[in-house]
């Protein structure tokens, strides 16, 4: 059985549409756990009345992504889940999404599988995983390198975000849960997949499974959209800032080869401090 863990904080409309897309799946070998972290927009009431079959765990509003996901994962593992999928509420699963994930998971039962992201606004693929260069700490985006005829099947990647990430139980038993204390919001998903690979588990993007997303709804996208000194500060220091220097430092110390840490830190600091101003 697959348990799908969805952390939410307000954005009731997104949560409803996400859950409706999961109801419409061609296969139903899954249950759903929503971690409602202190929503104040009626999300709890909506879940109770419209989706009574969904397990709802309530937080106090201070969990952020990582602790909320971990709370749901613990519940799923205690209940006996063989796989856990972490999913964001601002996603809509294609009708055969779970079918395609299960099919490829049967081929690679111990691997972590992500899905091909489709921009809901343009209906064009926009993210299909990354391959990183260990020395230079740069990423190659596979979707930009592959020809369209190759947008199918499994493609091995170096890391993957937590939206639509299928994780076998054996991975949690080997490496534990996401790092919620040091990486409470951003980068915990990348950190987890990198750690999984270091422990012998492969990570793939399943190009057959499509997940429609809203790139503009990301917290850092909104910070970047309107340039200001306040948003610049939030980009570098806010818990939801994609350029958060603390998170990047912790991630680098945890995942870069020891001899390359200074170079990776300097390069990353320059990208984050000046990248906001350029893009």
UniProtKB/TrEMBL annotation:
Entry keyword set: Glycosyltransferase, Transferase
Keyword field contains ATP-binding: no
Pfam families in alphabetical order: Glycos_transf_2
GO molecular function (one): glycosyltransferase activity
Region forming the signal peptide: none
SUPFAM superfamilies in the record: Nucleotide-diphospho-sugar transferases (SSF53448)
Record carries keyword Transferase: yes
Source taxon at top rank: Bacteria
Glycosyltransferase 2-like domain sequence ranges: 3-136
InterPro entries: Glyco_trans_2-like, Nucleotide-diphossugar_trans
PANTHER family, alphabetized: GALACTOFURANOSYLTRANSFERASE GLFT2 (PTHR43179:SF12), RHAMNOSYLTRANSFERASE WBBL (PTHR43179)
Family of the protein in this entry: Belongs to the glycosyltransferase 2 family.
Name of the protein described by the UniProt record: Glycosyl transferase, family 2
